[in-house]
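In response to reviewer comment 3 from the previous cycle, which asked for concrete evidence that the modeling workflow produces usable outputs, we include below a single protein chain processed end to end. The sequence was submitted unchanged, and the resulting structure tokens are shown without manual editing.
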Amino acid sequence: MGMLPLMCCMSVLFMHTVVFAAESQIQTSAQNQFPSVASEAQSTAAFQQALERIGKAAGTAGVLVVSLSSGKVVCEYRPKDVLVPASLMKLLTSYAALKKLGPSFRFTTKVLAAEGPVDGVISGDIWIKGSGDPFFASENALQLAEAVKEKGIRQIRGSIFVDNSFFQPLSERICLDSDCKGTYNPVVSATAINFNTLTVKITIPAKSRKAFIADSGLAEGYVRVSGQAGPGKKGGNSLGLRSLGATGNGREQFQLSGRASGRGGRVREFRFNAADPAGLFAHSMRAALERSGVRVLGTGAKEGTTPPGAEVIVSYDSPQLAELISGLNRYSNNFMAEMLLKSLGGYVAGVPGDSERGIAVVRTTLSEAGIPEQIGTLDCGSGLSRFCRISPETFCRLLAAAWNDNGIREEFISSLAANGEQGTLRRRMRQPDLTVRGKTGTLNDVIGFAGYVSGPSGKTYAAVVMLNEVRDRAKARQAVDSLIEQVAFSGV
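The workflow returned the following structure tokens.
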């Protein structure tokens, strides 16, 4: 792309006025190339160098920076062009969730039975029914099991079934570029545990005559490991574990191979997305109940629909949505974003929740915030798609809308990563007197930033920088950071 035909207006800001509050309309110059600006802008060599670096790092780019105090456009380059947003998409999903569900919203996971307990015994099966909790973990399964025990229940004579009917399809793998191998490609289901992932720890004893040990925590009943492995020569390690897929009876088969080097027991951990989310949850819940002293006599542990009229035995409520979104945005959690999108569809548009309904809710929410319907193409909740196309202007409008909304402002801003402190910005933009709360976006050829920036002047800016066709991600990040830093310290 070369050097961007872009100049940031330090002394001619009157040329571009932005109104975010009542009218929610941005008025910008139709020109992509600005006329020459006054010497103050021209003398900002470091600032211009940042722009040149963006041009060298990416084939296409879009930039929009707005002063939130004055409403004036500080800097822009092709702000209306729609580009691949990568994980910046999570801002749209989380904003819609805060607006439609509310910061204090909680997800509920229920344990149900056809009939209540008699003398500490449930005579039949139990069902676990979730409603999209994106943060339910092993410790919560143990809490749920303890709640069952506290009800005086000591025995369940039937099996454990997991009801995923709040979402459609019952489970779905979200894949980027048709490549589903990466752990960053989440498996989504309405009832999920540990992000629908599992960790298998393989220990190879020093003496080859001893069998390997596979430890998968609460998921021990779900995991089946076959194959052989042994100790290897010093410095050599070929130990591998791969999934052979779901077995069809609520379990997943894994194949072990290779050798592990080192003294004493050789230990390696492998992480997988679950091939059968319902089986993973059911077996984890069985283990949690057994640990709590509740015996489960039935052998089944798999998918199953709750029968009409089933009685709620106990339930677990998640942390508030505001807290959940902090984990989603700061650490760019794909699983949580896709769960939230389907949940929006289910809670707002009607059960079952799916991505299409969730996207419709996001579009409606943006429209209600005054953001034009022609915002681009929405294809997912996390940004794991090259079909998503959003403009810098849309993201800037979103940032301004959240900033001006007292109902969600604090929760939305606090959910974002902080420069030099936490999340995806922990090691970036560590300049003194620089405060950044933002969301990053990254794919192999995409780098993006959208967030709030302030410097020594105390002025706050909504800044969006989107780079596509990136040739060098490290240099692209440096170029984005340099631009953000120069805007913050400009004091315009």
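Confidence is low (pLDDT under 50) at residues 10-43. We consider this sufficient to address the reviewer's concern, and the full set will be provided in the supplementary archive.
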